[in-house]
Amino acid sequence: MNLFAIPSPSSLWTTVRSGGAINAACSFAALWALVKVLRMLRWRVKTTQLRGPPRTSLVYGVSRDIGSSHDRAATYERWATEYGVAYMTPSVLGQTNIVLCDPKAIAHFYARETWTYVKTPLTLAFLESSVGKGLLWAQGENHRRQRKALTPAFSNAAIRKLTSVFYDSAYKARICGKWDTAIESSKDGDAVIEVQNWMNHISLDTVGIAGFSHDFGSLDGKRVSVAEAFNTFGSNQPSAVHKAFILLASVFPIILKMIPNKRQNLFKKLGITMEQISNELLIRSRREKDASMSQGGEENSLIGLLSQDAELHMSGEEVVAQMKVLLLAGYETTSISLTWALIELSRHSDVQTRLREELLAFGPDPTYDQLKANLPYLDAVVHETLRLHPPVPESTRLAAEDDVLPLSEPVRTMSGNMTDSISIAKGTLITISIPAINRSLAIWGPDAKEFKPERWLTEDGISGKAKEVQGHRHLLTFVDGPRACLGKDFAIIEFKTVVSVLVKNFVFEMRDGPDTPVEVVRGILLRPRVVGEDGTGVPLKVRRYE
Fold first, then answer.
1. Which residues bind heme (predicted)?
2. Phi then psi dihedrals of residue 426, to 5 deg
3. How much is the pTM?
4. In 400-442, beta strands by DSSP E
5. Looking at 12-16, 214-218, 460-464, which range is the least confident one?
6. pLDDT per residue over 77-116, tens digit each?
7. How far apart are the first and last CA of the chain?
8. How far apart are CA 260 and CA 125, in angstroms?
C-alpha cells in the first residue's frame, strides 16, 4: 500500500459522506465547548464574584444598554453608587466585565498595563487594520521598545521648538483673516461660524507642520484626502446593525474580516489613506533632512527627530504606523478638545471674560515656558475642559494573568461579604470609564458636573478623593502608567496656544443662547454636536473683540 498516495476527489467525497468530516467537526466543537466550560469554572473559582446590574438581554447582557445610553459615564457612575466602587456587568454571550471606579484599584491597573492587563483581541484587530502595528497596537516588551524610541521626539526641548508652529496655525494671518471677512460682511458685526470644522483644520495643519514639516493647507481651503476620510465618520453615524455587529465581534473578532460593513470599510479606507500619506511624508522628510543636515541645519519636526534615532530601533512598518497614530491623535483628539473649550467658554461668558483679561494683561504671545507656568487661568480652563470632556471615553483590557486588585474602600460581594481587594482570574475583562472618574461626585465633590476652572486655582479646590487619582493633574484623560499618553505635553501646549489666540481676538456665544443643548455623537471618537445640526456641527456666534 502506498501511504503517500494523494486521494482522488471522489474518494474524499466518499469519506466526507461517510461522516468523517462531520465527526471531526463535532469533535472540534465538543473540545471547544469543554475548554470554554473549564475556563468558566476556573474563572468562577479564581475571581471575586461582585454585585452588579441584572442582564437585560440574553445575548448582549447590558452592553447594548450602555452603548445606546446618551451618557454612558452617568450610567457607570449610577451603578457605582448602587453596587460599590467595583462591580460586575453582564456582557455579550455570557461574558462578564469588572468595572473599576476606585482610584486605588485604577492606579494598580494602569501600573500593570501592557503586561498583566492587555488589549482585547477585538481592539488589536481594529488597530492593526486602521493604524498598523505601532505604539497603540504594541504590548509588553514590544511596546516598551517602541515607546523608548519615540520618547525623544516628545521631549520638552522638542515641543519648545514647535510652539511657534502652534501659533502660526491659529493666528489671524490665516484663520483670523478668514473669520474677519465673514464678520465684516455681516450686518450686526458678528457671524455664525461652524467652529468644529475650523478646529479640524487647525489641528490637521498643525500636526502636518509640527509632525512632518508639511503644510496640508487645510486652513487655506485645500482639499486634503486624509481630512475627507476623517470627516466621513461624522456624517455616517453607526447603525443599529453595526452596533450589534461590533458587540458580537467582541467575542468573535474574526467577524471584522469576514463580514464587511459600511463603517468598517470607512476605517479600512482611512487606514489606506493614512498609510499612503505617511509613506509620502516619510520619504520627503528623509530627503529634506539629508539636505538640511548637509547644510548644517537642525531638524525640528517630530518625524525628523523620530527618524534620527528611532529607525535604528523600529522597522519601516513600525515607523509608518507611528506616523499614522500621530496623524489620527493629532487631528482627532485635539480638535475635539478645542471644540469643547469654545462651547464651554460660550456657555460661560464670565469665564471667557476672565480668561481674556488674563491673556491681554500678559501682553505678547507667551513662550512655551510661560504657557506652562505664567497663565494660571488659561491652565485652569484647559484642564477643566479636559476633565469634563476627555476625548477617549473608556479603557477595556483583558487580564493576561491572575492578579489581585486592592481597593481604597470595601465593597460587598455577591455572597454578602465585604472585601477590600478583588481577585482577578486570567481572561477577565476590566473596564474603566474615564469620564465617569473625571466627573464622579464621590471623587470630585458636589460640583463635579459643573464647568468650574476656579477649582484648579486653590489648594482645596480639588478634593482629597480626587487627589488619590493617579494621572496627570489627577485626571485619567491621558491615562497613566506605561501607556500614559506620550503626546500629552504636545497636546496641552497646542491647546493653550490656540485658545489664547482665539480668545484674545474673538468673542464667542452659543448661536441660540447659553442653554443651547449639546449632544455627543460618534465620529472616529465621540464628538460634540449642537442638537438639531447635521454631522458634527457646532455653530457659534463669533464677533471681533475690540
1. 485
2. -50, 135
3. 0.89
4. 403-412, 418-424, 429-433
5. 12-16
6. 999 999 999 999 999 988 999 999 999 999 999 999 999 9
7. 98
8. 14
- Residue 217, C-alpha cell as written in the block: 493647507
Please report how the helices 195-212 and 302-309 are oriented relative to each other, as an axis angle in degrees rounded to 10.
Answer: 30
Specify whether the CB–CB gap between 207 and 154 falls below 8 A: no
Residue 94 has a pLDDT of 87
Question: 227 Cβ partners below 8 Å, 6+ apart?
Answer: 200, 201, 204, 216, 218, 331
Amino acid at 189: G
- The Cα–Cα gap between 214 and 206 comes to 9
pLDDT band at 514 (very low <50, low <70, confident <90, very high): very high
Helices 195-212 and 262-294, packing angle to 10 deg: 40
240-270 per-position pLDDT tens digit: 776 777 878 787 777 777 766 777 777 888 8
Q: Which DSSP letter does residue 148 get?
A: H
Q: How many CB atoms lie within 10 A of CB 156?
A: 11
Alpha helices in 348-393 (DSSP H): 349-362, 368-373, 376-388
401-435 pLDDT, tens digit per residue, is 999 999 999 999 999 999 999 999 999 999 999 99
Whole-angstrom distance, CA of residue 327 vs CA of residue 208: 8
Q: From the centroid of its chain, how far is CA 212?
A: 22
CA 459 – CA 165 distance, rounded (Å): 34
Q: How many angstroms separate the CA atoms of 209 and 301, rounded?
A: 7
For 223, other C-beta atoms within 10 Å of its C-beta total 9
Q: What one-letter code names the amino acid at 274?
A: M
Region label for 155, one of left (φ > 0), alpha (ψ between -120 and 50) or beta (otherwise): beta
Say if residues 352 and 346 touch (Cβ distance below 8 Å). Answer: yes
* pLDDT exceeds cutoff 70 at 362: yes
**How many Å apart are CA 398 and CA 39, to the nearest integer?**
14
CA angle 220, 226, 227 (to 5 degrees): 50
* Signed CA dihedral, 529, 535, 540, 543: sign only: positive
Count CB-CB contacts under 10 A for residue 352. 20
Q: What is the largest CA-CA distance in the chain?
A: 98
**Who's near 6: CB < 8 A, 6+ residues apart?**
none
Q: Which residue has the cell 519636526?
A: 301
What the block records as the C-alpha cell of 133 is 502595528
Residue where the block lists cell 512655551: 368
∠ CA 353-357-358 to the nearest 5 degrees? 120
CA distances for 450 relative to 134, 348, 389, 441, 472, angstroms? 37, 11, 12, 11, 20
Count of residues in the chain: 546
CB atoms within 10 A of CB 211: 26
> In sequence order, what are the residues at sequence separation of 6 or more whose Cβ sits closer than 8 angstroms to the Cβ of residue 147?
135, 482, 486
Q: Which residues pair with 319 in a beta bridge?
A: none
Question: Is 176 marked as binding a ligand?
Answer: no
Spatial CA neighbour of 244 closest among 231, 265, 261, 232: 261
User: If you write DSSP's letter for every residue of 73-109 in order, what string do you get?
Assistant: HHHHHHHHHHH-SEEEEE-GGG-EEEEE--HHHHHHH
